Amino acid sequence: MNRDQRWRYAVGDFGINLYFMSAMTFLLFFYTEVYGLSAAVAGGVFLVARVVDAVTDPVMGIIADRTRSRWGKFRPYLLFGPLPLGLITVATFTVPGFGDFGKAVWAYVTYVLFGIVYTAVTIPYAAMTAVLTDDHQERTLLSTLRIGCAFAGGYVVSVGLFPMVDGFGGGAGGFQASMVLFAAVATGLLWVTFAGTEERITPARPSHRLSLADGARALASNWPLIIVVLLFTLGMLSFTLRQTAAPYYFKYNMGREHLLSLYFGVTLPVMFLGLIAVPWLSRRFGKAGGIRVGAVIAMIGAAGFYLTPPDDVAMVFVWGSVLAIGGAPIAVLGWAMIPDTVEYAEWRTGIRVDGLILSTASFFQKIAKAVGGAGVAGALAFFGFAAHAEQSEETLEAILWAMSVAPLAVQVLLVVVSFAYRLDEQAHGRIVAELRDRRDRSA
Q1: What homologous superfamily does CATH list for 3-442?
Q2: Distance separating alpha carbons of residues 320 and 264, to the nearest angstrom
Q3: pLDDT (tens digit, 9 = 90+) per residue, 53-112?
Q4: How crowded is residue 303: how many other Cβ atoms within 10 Å of its Cβ?
Q5: CB count, 10 Å around CB of 124?
Q6: CA proximity to 397, closest of 411, 409, 383
Q7: Cα(109)–Cα(306) distance, rounded to whole angstroms?
Q8: What is the pTM of this model?
Q9: How far apart are CA 302 and CA 304, in angstroms?
């Protein structure tokens, strides 16, 4: 792939993360502080919507694998999906003029629909890595650029959303107007990705002829995929806990809500520094080894964060930055490892199901989002959280644990699991070479 093609693919994730980070970091806060839901009701919305979102992933993967069009099997969803995704995002961040029951129903319906449409766009987008190139290190570079754009989109949301909301008049109207702007930008960028990419890697056996049993075989015998799924799940769980709890930590533990945008404005660029090192880590230690390095750094950051008093603003920023650096390798290398498991499944079974394999990983990643988001909401409800009020010591401690201790424990598990991954560059290279021979013989 040339440089322009890489960037045209990567910028799509900038648009996707305008949605992802808005929901990940601010939707629970929006529900409890602006929309008017209790923490318990909001937690129910998060759990149901994110589980539905996760369940639709394998379905979307199968649909994408069976798609045939003049644009390929994944690109059509980047042409027809972005506009509906923008519309449902605006609806999700809209406060309707209903009573409490009607507002709860609106929250359930809109967030569930958001997850379904989000899946219809993002599963094909992410699966495209496997059909753009089959080179091991090229995939690392492509994933690094893509996640760099994702972080940039996340930066815009994390740093800019609250000022944008205020600029649009604040409150419910400010959130709605901000989402309209995000939707317009994201739609345009996803169309750039559609127009600027080409699906190059095709299986010897056409995927539109595959049965559900074929897909199940490709998954069941794919041990590298199982390991990557576990790594993905743990990485997303750690990230979800921190991001969901952060607005509450700054408002209630620190009493400095106005510093939240600055905090994200510092920690996310620091995460970019971690991104720069990821290709080197992959070459030096392998993909699994690079993930371990990041996890150890994140563990140090989490421990320092827990031990730092909330009034020590400088050290809160320092340890938050260490956590951010540690989260970079799994964010990049997990996506770079998934396409490698596609070739492993094709090599072992003769079956290539890019979309199904990617969607399986995404399914468990979204389960982690559901558990993390609903877990924070549940902890707040259990310890008596009340919006716009002084919180108990137990509630403040629960918020701190969600920001530090729980992510630390997750990172420990991530390190342990990473040692089970065996599909290194040499093994993948042999598999790709054999698959090319098979395709040449079948041509």
Answers
A1: MFS general substrate transporter like domains (1.20.1250.20)
A2: 9
A3: 888 988 898 898 888 888 988 999 999 999 999 999 999 999 999 999 999 999 999 999
A4: 16
A5: 27
A6: 383
A7: 37
A8: 0.74
A9: 5
